[in-house]
Write a structure and sequence with these properties.
three-stranded antiparallel beta sheet, globular, transmembrane helix, 8 strands, 3 domains, MFS, Major facilitator superfamily (MFS) profile domain-containing protein, mainly alpha, MFS_dom
Length: 655
């Protein structure tokens, strides 16, 4: 028996007769006057308890029990007492080599997933020219992003069932295998199919990496870990264009995908060595790990919101399909386009209805997007900002290298190098904004607003590039405008990652991390689809009558065909390409303007607790960390992280 103030925590054994999962039975056996068990009906074999509240003589005491009760065991991941009772903190944080390796592992996962879009974007011209399908090139990126978008939260739920470590290893393996499939593809169709399945693996990699990051450090360290992960993402985007351009120019584009095999293998080894088998419940005395049979039981699998996943995937796929294929395969006003738009909208509404139903306590599945999210204005604003801020990022890292290669005649490697300022400033913006927020405690709403305005200015300037600089070096001001755009995006991303724990309920932390990434990735997919639609529509409208259907068909198959055109036709085609890219940047500037307006959704009045504040090291409650929490974790042999060590050294230097 453990004592904490006036409250005693007793470890008992639950039996079918003493604790069958009913409220009456729990009250009969409890010492406290009132015990309420809040959960769904239990089965004879197992009892899933989500919350036990003890009231009466224990004033404002709350016991949170997460786990499974079986006839011979009682599992709990956390017991905490609030109110007049002292907190019993049994959250164990790792330290030493395990935590260093875990930090490196999740950073590698973020790096590998984010390098994919950038590295493929730089190599896309070489890929489409080799496979003779320029007009389907958008699907190489968007097919990947569709499944990536739809599976993020599903992987988070799968990890709840089979465990964080097992799910992370599985998703990394899937990512590796289909990367190999992409590298061995002989047709554009084969490549797109493999990219779709590669996106499924990528979704799990980034979703579980962020979930693990939230669970391995206290809340006070979220800005630090957010800076690490966003830096890893930005470094992936920074290295991607250079690696992709170098590989496409010096070797074959297939190595763009095959390089994921050794990198993925290193990540799997690090994960296998560093992540405890029962993470994040390692070291907890009450936790009894479920067997593999229990993990894959019908009751466990019933927790997955498969209907929601299918509806979300269908709505996303149909919407992106019509945006990519119009006007190449059909016009915007055709029956096909209208049907696809309508079906996408219907599936989207059915998805919301499904989430409303499964959010009810009477339903077993755990929702992908809990209905209560819709009534949290600040959280909805965060998701909208995540979506809008991702649109310019994905378009820029794809379209600027394409423009430099197609319009300016620069090599793939040269195009990748010229994208470095943009990606470098994203990484710098992520780091500096988190350090600034921690030191000044300025509310994130003001920092997000500043980043959005800087982003708007940079994108507006990018849309003013001259369309008369074909086959010449791009103007030097390009780097300055990339710098502004990248720094603004980095500021916004850095702040959005630390907002969820401050605006959602603790039970929704894992779901919120997946939702944030899901909206961000969907924004990227939507942006690429819109950009492809804008470019294809512009080229079709302005070139079909100027150069003829034969020349236009050749351009849409491969940009290499432009080199074989007469000089006057080449000049006309390249000018229209440049104008099309400028139009894409103007569309991005419009989205950036909308983003500035949406920052207002983050505003919280005094009645709502005031503006969000970032918790500083040493000022958080004992349960979040701080001196007392750190001492308790140190006594247990856990605690600390590489990010925490770096941050403490930084604070010492500042002082």
């Amino acid at each position: 028996m453990e004592k904490s103030g006036a409250i005693e925590v007793t470890e008992r054994t639950a039996t079918p007769s003493s604790f069958p999962g009913s409220k009456e039975s729990a009250e009969e056996k409890a010492e406290a006057p009132n015990v309420s068990v809040l959960d769904r009906p239990a089965t004879p074999a197992s009892i899933h308890v989500s919350e036990v509240s003890i009231e009466g003589r224990m004033e404002a005491a709350e016991v949170i029990v997460a786990g499974t009760v079986t006839p011979g065991s009682f599992q709990t991941s956390e017991i905490s007492f609030v109110g007049k009772a002292e907190t019993t903190d049994i959250i164990y944080y790792l330290k030493g080599w395990r935590l260093h390796f875990m930090s490196l592992s999740i950073a590698l996962l973020f790096f590998l997933v984010n390098i994919e879009v950038a590295i493929v974007g730089t190599s896309l011209i070489s890929i489409t020219d080799d496979l003779h399908s320029f007009k389907q090139g958008g699907w190489v990126v968007t097919g990947y992003l569709i499944t990536y978008t739809s599976m993020i939260i599903i992987w988070a739920k799968i990890s709840d069932i089979i465990g964080r470590k097992q799910a992370t290893l599985a998703t990394t393996f899937i990512f590796m295998m289909f990367s190999a499939g992409c590298g061995l593809s002989q047709t554009m169709t084969q490549l797109i199919v493999n990219r779709v399945f590669q996106g499924i693996g990528a979704a799990g990699c980034v979703s579980l990496a962020l979930t693990i990051a939230y669970e391995m450090v206290p809340k006070s360290q979220y800005p630090s870990i957010a800076a690490q992960l966003t830096t890893a993402s930005a470094l992936g985007s920074l290295a991607g264009p250079v690696i992709g351009g170098g590989v496409a120019e010096k070797a074959t584009w297939r190595w763009v995908f095959l390089l994921n095999l050794p990198a993925g293998l290193v990540t799997i080894i690090l994960l296998g060595l560093s992540v405890p088998a029962h993470f994040p419940y390692q070291g907890q005395p009450f936790y009894i790990a479920p067997t593999f049979r229990q993990k894959i039981s019908k009751a466990s699998l019933a927790r997955l919101d498969l209907s929601g996943a299918v509806l979300l995937l269908g709505a996303t796929l149909l919407l992106v399909t019509v945006l990519l294929e119009a006007p190449n395969e059909f016009s915007w006003h055709s029956k096909t386009a209208i049907v696809l738009f309508v079906l996408s909208g219907v599936l989207g509404l059915l998805f919301l209805l499904n989430e409303r139903i499964v959010t009810s306590d009477n339903w077993r599945p755990e929702p992908i997007f809990p209905w209560r999210f819709l009534f949290n204005r600040v959280w909805i604003g965060t998701l909208i900002l995540a979506l809008l801020s991702a649109i310019p990022y994905n378009i820029i890292i794809i379209d600027i290298p394409q423009r430099l290669q197609t319009v300016n005649g620069i090599s793939p490697l040269g195009a990748g190098i010229r994208l470095i300022p943009f990606n470098f400033m994203i990484a710098l913006g992520c780091i500096l904004i988190n350090v600034f927020a921690m030191r000044t405690r300025i509310s994130p709403i003001y920092l997000v607003l500043a980043g959005s305005i800087i982003q708007l200015v940079g994108l507006s300037l990018l849309s003013s590039l001259s369309s008369n600089d074909t086959m010449t070096s791009p103007p030097s001001v390009l780097y300055g405008w990339e710098t502004l755009s990248g720094f603004g995006i980095g500021m916004v991303w850095g702040m959005l990652l630390v907002i969820p724990p401050h605006v959602v309920e603790p039970r929704d932390l894992a779901i919120s991390s997946g939702a944030l990434l899901q909206f961000r990735v969907f924004g990227g997919a939507l942006g690429l689809a819109l950009a492809s639609a804008v470019m294809n529509s512009y080229l079709t409208e302005h070139l079909s009558h100027s150069i003829g259907a034969e020349y236009l068909a050749a351009v849409l198959q491969s940009t290499e065909a432009i080199k074989g055109f007469p000089v006057d036709v080449q000049r006309l085609v390249l000018e229209k390409f440049a104008e099309g890219y400028d139009l894409q940047m103007k569309v991005l500037a419009a989205f950036a303007g909308l983003q500035v307006l949406c920052v207002g959704l983050l505003w919280r009045g005094k009645g709502q607790g005031g503006q969000i504040r970032i918790v500083e090291v040493g000022q958080e409650s004992p349960r979040q960390g701080g001196k007392d929490g750190a001492e308790r974790r140190e006594r247990r042999g856990f605690g600390g992280s590489l990010g925490e060590w770096v941050w403490k050294r930084f604070i010492e230097l500042e002082r």
